[in-house]
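DM from R.C. (forwarded with permission)

"hey, sorry to bug you on a friday — could you get me a structure for this? deadline for the figure draft is monday and I only need the backbone to look sensible"
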Amino acid sequence: MNPSDNLKQIVEAALLASGKAMTLGKLLELFDEMEQPEKKELHAVLQELGEDYANRGIEIKEVASGWRIQVSRECAPWVSRLWEEKPGRYSRALMETLALIAYRQPITRGEIEDIRGVSVSTHIMRTLLEREWVRVVGQRDVPGKPSLYGTTREFLDYFGLKSLDELPTLAEIRDLDVINEELNLQEPDVEATNAAAVAEETNTSDDLQHESADPQAQETVPEESSPQTEPEAEQNTPTAAVTDTDEKQT
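My reply, with the result:
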């Protein structure tokens, strides 16, 4: 097989067998020095493969670590059922912390807590570090020298990004100073709460009107015995007073 004539097939086979992203440099290492193609040739082949894979269940994707063959996003929900063990679900707090690191990096744990308004658990930071989505990139030059956190290439690969530039822009997600609102961390909506209270009052009023219109409900009111006992007690009281007077006169 002549490498120059079958460059596309060789690159495709290498990406499929590798099972992970490969840089252009790694792809070039597949060839002897005398048969190595130019980088621009490799890049053109990868572009052609991307066009060949269009509208198929798999695709050629460039991420931070290089190029890889992966399942298309449209088919992923069905393909994921091949594995009995479902992927781990991450808490909202973890994802909010990761988002702040991605957009505000380098950032300290204390700064994350100031923005979110709550403390960041050690478990969350340990998970991000163990997943290699986040790493310590330095220390802030303030008392205590707190660690500065930033995202990694593994973070970009996991989310299918080539660089941080592919993250949604700040204009799309609003200013990071109000990221709590963007992530639904704000206090309960006062207007919604008031509307719910009004609706509850309306329902209660309707129930009362319904009960008053019910003949059975009206018949049960006179059956209450407690209001009748108090007048009897009041009638007995003057009798006792008259008896005492008669005894004194005697």
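R.C.: lifesaver. DSSP finds 13 helices and five strands in the chain.
me: no worries. The mean pLDDT is 74.
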